[in-house]
Fold:
Amino acid sequence: MKILVYIRRTPDTAAVIKPSEDRKDIVREGVSFIINPYDEFAVQEAVNLKGIKGGETVVMTVGDDSSVEQLRRALAMGMDRAVLVKHERFWELNPSQVGYAIAEVAKREKPDIVLMGKVTIDDYTYALPGYVAQALGYNLLTYVTHAEYGDSSVKVERETDIGKEVWEAPYPVVISAERGLNEPKIPTVMGIMKAKKKPVEVLEMDLPRYTYEVVEFNPPPPRKGVKLLESVDDLIRVLKEEVKIL
Amino acid sequence: MKALVVLETLKGKVREASHEALGFARELSDEVVGVLVGKEPERDVRGLERVYVFSDPRLDIPLSAPVAKVVEEVFRREGGKYVVLAATPFGKELGGRLAALFNAPILDDFTGYEDGLFVKGFYSNKVFAKIRIDGSPVILSPRPRAFKPSQDTREPEYVDLDLALDESLFAAHPVEVKEKSPEDIDVTEADIVVSGGRGMGSAENYQKWIPALKDALAKATGMKVAYGASRAAVDAGWVDHSHQVGQTGKTVSPLVYFAIGISGAIQHQAGMRTSKTIIAINKDPEAPIFGLADYGMVSKWEDVLPGLIEKLKGE
Ligand SMILES: Cc1cc2nc3c(=O)[nH]c(=O)nc-3n(C[C@H](O)[C@H](O)[C@H](O)COP(=O)(O)OP(=O)(O)OC[C@H]3O[C@@H](n4cnc5c(N)ncnc54)[C@H](O)[C@@H]3O)c2cc1C
Structure:
C-alpha cells in the first residue's frame, strides 16, 4: 500500500492573530506554527496503516522553506519521505492552486490512498479533498472518523449534517480526516533522530494562475462589553426585553 | 452575467442552505439557472429562469462524483460566470470537484458580499478577510445561514436531463445511514446554542442540565436550539464531538450563545465569537469568556440553571 499525505503549515490554534500594518497579511512574527490539526490525523492514519499493511508513506506540502519544519515533524511521527512543492507565500494561494499541486505530486507518486484533513484552519477551505479526487479520478470519502482498510476497498464511518454514515469505496481513494479518526502521537526522540536522515525532496512547479487576493484583513468586529446580571429574574428580563427571544 | 446554482436536495426537497445560496446568486446575477439533482426531487423551487432536473434512485443521499458530472453537462449547455452552491458538507466536497473540473478558482464558506468583494473569516474567525476573486467561471460556496433565502417568486422552466452516468461514478457509496433525529439540531443550524464545558463537573450533570435548558428554551421560544460543548467536555466523553464548538470543532453564529462552565479559551472563542449575543455563566469573574460575552452571570451554574429552566417553563 502506498499512501500520500498532504499537510499544511498553519499558525498554532492558541496563536493570537492580528492584521499586519498594511492589512494585506497577518502579523507572522512571534506566531508559532504547527501542522494543521486535521492534517495531523491524516499523518497518524498513514503511519498506523503502514504499521498494519506495510508499504510506503510520503508526506507532502505546498509551502516555503519554513514548512520543512512541519514535514520533519511528520517524518518524526513515522512517515518515510517528504516532498516540498515550493511556494514562498503559499498562504496566498487559492485552494485550486494547492489542489493542483497535490494532484501533480500524486500523479507522479501513484498512491493507493491520498489522505488530508477535512479543512485547513488558516484559510478555512474544505475544497482540497474534492479537488484532488476530481483531478485524479480517485474515489472520495470525506469527514472520516473511522476507517477499515481491506485489500481492494476501504470502509469508513463519516459524519455529516445528515447523520452518521458508513461508506465504502474501492482504491484508489482520497480520504479526508475528521476529528476522532485517531489520536496523533507526539514524536519520540528516536523518531526525531531518524527524521533528520529522511529525504526531503524540493520541487518547483508552475501553478495555474487565478485572480484571487485578500484585499484587506480586519480584526473581528468589536463586542460591546459585558453586562453583569445578578439573578435569574434579571436574565429572564434580558431575554425578553433586550435579546427578545421570549 | 449568468449564475448556475446547484440545488442540493434531501428526501426530495431543496435544502434551506440551497435556497440561501440561490438568494445570494440572485444578488449577483440577472440570470440564474438551477441544477436539481436527487431521487425524484420536487419541482417547487422559485426564483430561477430555468432548472435542469436529473433524478436517479441512487442519489437519495447526494454523491459528489455523479452530481459533478451533471453540473458539467449543464455548464456545457448553458455556460455561466458563477457556479454557486451552499457550503454544506456535501457542497464543500462538490465545490472542490467543480473547481478541478472547470479549472476555476474557488471561495468556500464565505459569509458576506459587499461592493464586489467577499467577506470570509480566516484563522477561525480571528481575522476577517475581504477577498477579490474572479474567473470564468468562479466557484462560490456561501456558508449556510449567512445569506437570506431568495424572495424571488418567478416560476422556472424545468428541463429534464437524460444522462447515462457511468457506474464508476457511484463507486464510493453509502452502505448505512443513521440519520440524526430531527430534535438533534446541528450547532451550525441552530438559532440558539447552549454549550457546557468542564465546569459542568461530570457527565451526569452535563447530560442532565444542558439538554434540559435546551428543551426549555426550544419550548419557550419556538426556535431551533442545539447543544454544544467545549473541547474539554468532549474529551471527557460527556458528549459526542460533533457538538464541539471551536477552532477544531464547529464555527457557529447563532442569535444567542450560552457558555456555561466554559472558560473561553482562544480556540473556543474562535468558534463562537460571531454569535449575535453571548451569555456566559461562570463562577470565576476572571474567566476570559467575560471578555467576549454581552451578558454574564458570575455564579455557579447550580445556582442558575434550575431556576432558569423553571422560569422558562412559565413563559
Ligand atoms: C490544537 C487545539 C485545538 C483546540 N480546539 C478547541 C476547540 O475546538 N474547542 C474548544 O472548546 N477548545 C479547544 N481546545 C482546548 C482549549 O484550549 C481549552 O482547553 C478548552 O476550551 C477548555 O474547555 P473548558 O472551557 O470547558 O474548560 P476549562 O478551561 O477548564 O474551564 C472550565 C470553566 O468552568 C468554570 N466553572 C467550574 N465550575 C463551575 C461551576 N460550578 N459553575 C460555573 N462555572 C464553573 C471555571 O471557572 C472555568 O472557567 C483546543 C486546544 C488545542 C491545543
